[in-house]
Amino acid sequence: MDITLSEEIDPEFLEIVQCILDDAEFKKLNYYKQHLKTTRFMHSLNVSYVSWLLAKRFGCDAAAAARAGLLHDFFLYNFGEKRDTKELQAFYHPKVAAQNSADRFEISEKERLAILSHMFPLGPLPRSREAWLISCADKLCASSELFHFQIFLAKGNRVVVSPT
């Protein structure tokens, strides 16, 4: 799968997340729908970019916000698929995403906790400013996607994903 990112995307952001974006397992997120009209890959990229922008603006750890924002929904199953747990998706998927992220990438404890708390108030209270930003960015992006607004990186075809 080829992913083409426009030159308009800040190279500082790309430097932080490129190793994740290049990962074959992470790219599989493009095969899963998220919020009706987008993919989990695009949603995660939007959350990452918004979190990174906000973190820079508010003097937070922008790299941790970008990485945890990108990995917050790193699970490779559809919402309706049968799972080995009776736990609701809203509580279950952050744990799977955090475990997948820790298994696949070197993530910090701050990043792990931000992934686990991104569903607040349905999950644990975010413990860092970066975790709060990711939780807010996730809700902003999800709302925009549900209402079919093309936002952030999807707008203007700044990111184009094509199968190989």
From TrEMBL:
SMART domains: HDc. SUPFAM superfamilies: HD-domain/PDEase-like. InterPro entries: HD/PDEase_dom, HD_domain. Residues 36-152 form the HD/PDEase domain. This is HD/PDEase domain-containing protein.
